[in-house]
Amino acid sequence: MPAIFSKAPGKIILFGEHAVVYGQPAIAVPVHQVQAKAVITPNPLSEPGEIIIDAPQVNLLAEWSSLPENNPLVFVIHTTLTHLRVVRPPAMTIRVTSTIPIASGLGSGAAVSIAIIRAISNYLGIQLPVDEVSALAYEAEKIHHGHPSGVDNTVIAYGAPVYFEKNHPCQLFDIPVPFTIVIGDTGISAVTGDVVKDVRQKWEVNLDEYNRIFSSIGEISRNAYQSIIQGENRRLGEWMDENQSLLKKIDVSSPELDQLIDAARRAGALGAKLSGGGRGGNMIALTEPDQADTIAAVLKQAGARNTIITEIKTISS
Ligand code: PMV
Description:
This protein is α+β, with helices and mostly antiparallel strands. It has helices spanning 72-83, 108-123, 130-144, 151-158, 192-205, 207-229, 234-249, 255-266, 292-301; strands at 4-15, 26-42, 51-55, 60-63, 92-98, 162-164, 171-172, 179-185, 271-275, 282-287, 306-312. It is built from nine helices and eleven strands. Helix 6 packs antiparallel against helix 7 (234-249). The structure holds (3R)-3-hydroxy-3-methyl-5-(phosphonooxy)pentanoic acid (PMV). Residues 13, 17-18, 20-21, 105, 107, 148-149, 151-152, 192, 196, 276-277 line the site of (3R)-3-hydroxy-3-methyl-5-(phosphonooxy)pentanoic acid.
């Protein structure tokens, strides 16, 4: 049996993070410049059921039965095999690598899960529909943080722009006029689960205020969605700035994020905000395509560890 290779992209949330956990819509798009990969090689001389996990970036090389059940990689392998009703798969090594920075709002956890789920199902000759891939990755997301909205696994499994509302059918959409986003990494890792938990605690004691903020963010996502599908991209900058000021009100920005966001705006970005869980990780700035290099350079000067320029478009365009 030959080696099997699967990959999954990173993602950014354009609008609606955090509010999406409370039932508001969010807009997320894949970022194909970064990706997670899973390569499965058969180990014909080993016993069926033996799986070696080789994840060099987290210094992990071990037979899966020697690892705790709640290890996210073990969990996703186990969940996938159970879903596929395979008890003793042919022995294999799963090598996992990723260029998506960990704990930085680019969907690294969900992308790794999805690459593994696809690689295992392909290895076993089973074609899993995208919604099942997404649902399996959602189970693994719960290990990363208790109350995930499901936006990360959805946008990464479909690999396409998504207008996402919790407990609603997934809504993919076309982008008639592509637009350019510069992503800037603060280099500070922040665990989404911790930030989501903190927001929940504050929500519990400031219910009215937080619900008002979440509905305002939801309104921005709805407006931004209309702007995107009507090709009025310039308006998105305004919505991004408004979304960022609401994210600051729920205390999920950070001095480093604010510094990059301010630098991008001063350099002529049409709008900017944090993306993902916040308190670190990445920010995004909307820019004219011919300004993207300048904004990326300014972000670097302002302390960004890394920048990515990405064109947001329909996959087939
Ligand atoms: O930090 P990320 O990339 O996992 O994005 C989290 C987005 C949140 O809305 C904060 C949480 C969620 O489950 O949607």
